[in-house]
Amino acid sequence: xxxxxxxxxxxxxxxxxxxxxxxxxxxxxxxxxxxxxxxxxxxxxxxxxxxxxxxxxxxxxxxxxxxxxxxxxxxxxxxxxxxxxxxxxxxxxxxxxxxxxxxxxxxxxxxxxxxxxxxxxxxxxxxxxxxxxxxxxxxxxxxxxxxxxxxxxxxxxxxxxxxxxxxxxxxxxxxxxxxxxxxxxxxxxxxxxxxxxxxxxxxxxxxxxxxxxxxxxxxxxxxxxxxxxxxxxxxxxxxxxxxxxxxxxxxxxxxxxxxxxxxxxxxxxxxxxxxxxxxxxxxxxxxxxxxxxxxxxxxxxxxxxxxxxxxxxxxxxxx
Length: 319
Fold this sequence. Notes:
Blueprint: H1 3-10, E1 25-26, E2 30-35, E3 39-44, E4 49-50, E5 53-54, H2 62-76, E6 85-90, E7 93-97, E8 100-101, E9 104-111, H3 114-121, E10 126-127, E11 130-131, E12 141-151, H4 163-168, H5 174-197, E13 200-212, E14 215-219, E15 228-232, H6 236-241, E16 248-249, H7 252-260, H8 276-294, H9 306-318
Antiparallel strand pairs: 1-2, 2-3, 3-7, 4-5, 6-7, 8-13, 9-12, 9-13, 10-11, 13-14, 13-15, 15-16
């Protein structure tokens, strides 16, 4: 491993802890600190997860790439819906409005891939109450994008749910659900247009929403490799006609790597160790997507003593 590679692994951000503040809520990837004045400090770490398991080994600067890419993508849709972002004081940190998250999220699917394909291949044609046409091929575009909602699980898998059941169970009001659908459609349209301009296809993507002062707000992340699936536009049609898998940029390659090593998150399956060479490969893939979508090369910000830097950020944001 060369010196540049060693430097990459030297500054991986796996967890945070700041004296003088309550311990953060730790999600799979984010450490979230509650601040005064209805604010949050969201620290995007270098942790990576698959099949609802967090890998033991972090990915160098993954957190910075995700945080900056999400901020870039949200700025591009700020005319469609307000976002939770207030500012980005460090590439790993977002200061955000503290919203009330909706209990459901949505996946907008433009193509028959991933979970939708697995359902389709099993002979089912209904996904979250949405009918999928007969006679489709894997990775083929739907006639129009479909919206597939899921409940948000605190632990384990999110569960598919239909719009009908969302309303029946009073998870959302009819007016809020209508707004979610309209905004998700507009967001996917904008994301698809931007991806096409960059030589990519936005295949499917997750959107999460919250309420801030009774207004619908876009939260979490959008159009990142963790939340979305991208195909390279070049070669897509050729691969589709020849029943070949399209080249893609997403976290799916990690899942495929794990499956080859007989890990799918099931009971009694041993979590594999990610070798440094593979961790570096993941870093390069995330960096490539950042470059393609933003038009700029990703430059890591090396931050020794990150917790000290974070403490200052939290104090400043608490004023």
